[in-house]
């Protein structure tokens, strides 16, 4: 009893290890410095890109094709359209496959079976495989089945393979966050497992699925390596008009322009970078909006 | 109205379903006196209870395993038609496990299996040709935590009839009927299109009961349906169970002995006993009798100890 009294009457001033000690403040400063470093790098990149690219950020950028001889008139029309086309095709392939695979793994697969465990482990590994490996895989696949490598379809296959593990993992997370009580309630009414998935679990998980999918697609949008490995075209002066059409994308176009000696090419590359960043920003913002507005807290 | 009156005409209540001449004794019409005094739950059973239950579900030598672990051993009991049967006992005695095995909800737990025989109108529900989906359509379930779907009140009720492909002439009638039966209609009739999540916990639980009776089951399993509710909401659910007994058979797991004493016609007491060789605690049925007898003159010392609060 006496000790309790002694503790209670001891002064409350800061001790050696308190919140305002030198160590604590030093650590806090280090954390701020780390954050500042990241932000300054990003800001520098954005500001230089903006200063370089601003004069070329006009209508012509969106309406003109690239040019070999007159860099002042080069535009990114083919790259912007190509990027859109490839991303839409990628989404059409990756989303149904990814969501279906996730539904199987999360709702139907018996986690005690060895092959399901194997899939589980591999999925985590696949998500960490470098993008260029998927480019090689697709190149090999295209060669085997006689598909041209430099067409929209091949590019989309490579990007779909790239983001498939990410979509599967995020969709599984979203499905897992739907409480078991919802599934049980549905099954107890005499619904089949399939009805339960279609009418309860998947709709409830949709915001999470959408968020993960958009983030995965924005990664695919900024990806150049697998497309370059497929021999992505760097000089396209026509609109892509189908799955078997040649194409270029914004990252490839930027890569190609920045390798040119003329300063005008670097300027137009900066302008294209601004467009690409704008697109990515819009997609990520959309993902955040969907998450905040529709995600349910159980 | 026609919707619910038709189900009483199905043969399940007929004496032909009784397996033995004994149990063919006429069952009393349930719920003859509406105003049972609350203060002393044992004072007045509202209706005379048949000596033996007319069986709807019949468990014989039922063992339930989770993988190698035997959770419940050797349960033999008969659940009677239009009766409320309570399963009581300390935590871990397997009463919820038994309940969930009655409509094959245990199938959803990997590794769960049942030996012995659980029959529903003399059909083994674990038989090779039996579809668990069909079992759950006849034997509905209400859970511990109210679990409405993240949809409107209307959609919550309409979901069941839709998924089981019930022949529905007018869904509005079914919704109204089910909500009326669950004593919820007056409270929600003006906000049927609003989310079920806006309801209070007690209302949500009554919505779950309404949702269950909308698919016209014969038996309703309730797994501690009031444990997440306050006393007033609990009283409403208990009154509701009383009314539902007239058309449904209700089996309820409860931790609340007073609740068992208030609502149940028969009570089964389970307890867990550690096994000699492994030390695993296995649930077993100690005693099963009319509630009045269980609470006034139990036949087993362990029942008496539990009911009088000496353990559990």
The chain-level mean pLDDT of chain B equals: 83
* Total number of beta strands of chain B: 10
Structural class of chain B: alpha/beta
Overall body shape of chain A:
flat
* Helix and strand run of chain A: HHHHHHHHHHHH
Number of helices of chain B: 11
The unreliable regions of chain A are: none
Rg calc of chain A: 26 Å
First-to-last CA distance of chain A: 45 Å
Tell me which protein chains meet in the greatest interface and how many residues each side has. A-B, 21 and 25 residues
Please, could you describe this protein's structure?
The complex is a heterodimer of chains A (298) and B (312). Chain A has 298 residues and is an all-alpha fold. Chain A has 12 helices and no strands. In chain A, helix 4 runs antiparallel to helix 9, helix 7 (152-176) crosses helix 9 (193-221) and helix 9 (193-221) runs antiparallel to helix 12 (263-294). By secondary structure, chain B is an alpha/beta fold. Chain B has 11 helices and 10 strands. Chain B has a 10-stranded mixed β-sheet, sandwiched between helices. In chain B, strand 1 (55-66) and strand 2 (69-80) form a beta hairpin. Chain B is globular. The N and C termini of chain B lie far apart (45 Å). Chain A binds chain B through residues 110-112, 179, 181-192, 195, 199-200, 204, 296, and chain B through 103, 105, 108, 110-111, 133-134, 136-137, 140-141, 143, 145, 147-150, 159-160, 163-164, 208, 211-212, 215.
